[in-house]
Write a structure and sequence with these properties.
The chain is mainly α. The protein is built from six helices and no strands.
Length: 134
């Protein structure tokens, strides 16, 4: 019987949890990026440019992060490398774009925390990365 106050865990449970976290956050981030990709030309001229580059460059970097990197995280390929642009993006969103507005920072913080966990623990057993690590 499973005890709710137990601190025991199984390796299989940890691996399955990493799988759920990686695929879930990857797919959720991918949905954010997909809408930006499909509406790129309409969004780019007005997109926030925190580093004083054009909206096209800023949006291009965000689309790369939210589509390409999120896809790599989802399938577990080059996971830790793909997490770096996502972590940087979430830091910019939280600390610069939505500075001082917790209601808008909250989603970015959730993604940031999940990405940090994945960076520390890795993609887990159920990933493409594991195929190459053998």
């Amino acid at each position: 019987m499973l005890r709710v106050n137990s601190i025991k865990y199984s390796q299989g449970g940890v691996q399955f949890s990493l799988f759920i976290l990686r695929v879930g956050t990857g797919l959720l981030m991918l949905t954010h990026g997909w809408s930006k990709l499909t509406n790129f030309s309409e969004m780019a001229p007005h997109f926030f440019a925190p580093f004083h580059v054009s909206g096209y460059v800023s949006l291009g970097a965000v689309v790369f992060s939210e589509v390409v990197c999120a896809f790599l995280v989802t399938i577990g390929l080059l996971t830790r490398v793909a997490l770096i642009p996502l972590l940087i993006q979430m830091l910019v969103v939280v600390l610069v774009v939505h500075q001082g507005d917790f209601s808008h920072q909250e989603l970015g913080l959730h993604f940031l925390l999940a990405f940090i966990v994945l960076l520390v623990l890795g993609p887990g057993r159920f990933s493409v990365d594991r195929l190459f690590s053998r």
